[in-house]
Amino acid sequence: MTTIWRDHYCWIPGFQVNDEDNFEDDETLESFNANVKMAKLINYIHEQSGHHKGNHIALPWGCDFAFQNARQNFEEMEKLIKYVNAHNPYKVKLLMSTPNTFSDALKGQDIKWATYYHDMFPYSDDPNEVWAGFFSDRPGQKKMIKDGSANLHASNHLFSKKVIN
């Protein structure tokens, strides 16, 4: 089983923490945007639901090096989840999850998945940028290099001890 994100593996568009348009649920503030943000999120979820089996969708939250301030990220997530679950007129329920919990939820729905027998690579995240063989090219050679490197470090360590003595 796999999942594919339409935009990227980072935040969905418009929900990046630390931008000038953070989710604001305090109605007394001029920057209150909870209803607009909720509508945008629900629309995004409905768009995605047509491309997924089952009734669970994983939404990415964060990105590479995004959690220098993890507390702020989690507080934003919790605030968004609480507001959407309390105010959305649809049967959409948000929750913080893990890949394992997400997979278990899908397995519990007895979905019939297609089987893909071909190599997953080359992987491309932009039209002219290919990560050919990022994980799958020459695994035997990669192991030999890793083992050789470990032996080299061990022998250097033993040689250094001998020289010192």
List the helices and strands and how they pair.
Layout: H1 34-49, H2 70-87, H3 99-107, E1 124-126, E2 129-130, H4 139-164
| First-last Cα distance | 56 Å
Q: What overall form do the CA principal axes indicate?
A: extended
- How many distinct domains? 2
CATH topology tier name of the largest domain: 7-stranded beta/alpha barrel
Mean pLDDT across the residues is 84
User: What is the strand content?
Assistant: under 5%
Largest sheet: 2 strands, antiparallel
Describe the overall structure:
It is a single chain. This protein is extended. A two-stranded antiparallel sheet has the order 1-2. It has helices spanning 34-49, 70-87, 99-107, 139-164; strands spanning 124-126, 129-130. The protein folds into 2 domains: 1-117, Alpha-Beta Barrel (7-stranded beta/alpha barrel), CATH 3.20.110; 124-164. A hairpin with a 2-residue loop joins β1 and β2 (129-130). With 165 residues, the protein is mainly α.
